[in-house]
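Give me the 3D structure for Glutathione S-transferase.
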Amino acid sequence: MPIIKPTNKSVESLEGLHLYHTGFSNCAMRVRIALEEKELAWESHLIDLQKGENRTAEYFGINPNGVVPTLIDDGVVIIDSADIIDYIDRKFVSGSLRPSSQVELAEMYEWMYLARDNHLSIKTYMYSNVKNSQGMKRSDEEMADYRDKQTFDAALLAFHERFNSSNGFSEQEKAQATAVIDECFAKMDNRLKDHQWLVGEAFSLADITWIPQLVVLKAANYPFEKYPNLEQWKNAIVQRPSFKRGVKQWLVGMGE
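Predicted structure for Glutathione S-transferase (256 residues):
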């Protein structure tokens, strides 16, 4: 469920839209793009992942996964980026980001959930291929603390246990993650061969869900040249004001 009851009750008094996020997070990028597409005013709460600010008791009291993003809407707490952008588009109806056709609406959710359900494959590829990945490892004490607090998402805990183990990810695990990503992008490339957008004839939540994957995987040198139809789609999106404000603005000094 996207809406949760936080144990950190202080956030329930917040008025307006508040986003807990970090710049280089594909999930946070989705939410920022959606907020900017809707031209909504929102207050930024940057979380420094390198300093472990997402693993404090205070933040776990807001998001029981200890991840970004988290959206607060007049004290209502929404987690999981796919659920957040769906919530935003449902509540703030002006400038709809969903197709009107029920068939196309189902297709939109299929694309969104494909991205969400494969997020650990993306993380495995990223953690295995970015240059500074070893600097992302946690100490034994940090892992013990995280293990004690992370009781909400067993799969995410298992991922971090594996990454922080002495052996790290096996070659088989890396290959499996790559195969999942390859299959997703091949499906996208095939769709975009004859269409401008992933669903219907207009930019939608499906496109918002997927474009950040290209941003983060570029940093891991993913071979996007294998999928030529993605290029035109990507170029159309990066020119949108929402991408410039929701993604590029937050990557200043980090590269793109």
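The beta strands are 3-4, 17-21, 43-46, 70-73, 76-79. Let me know if you want a second pass.
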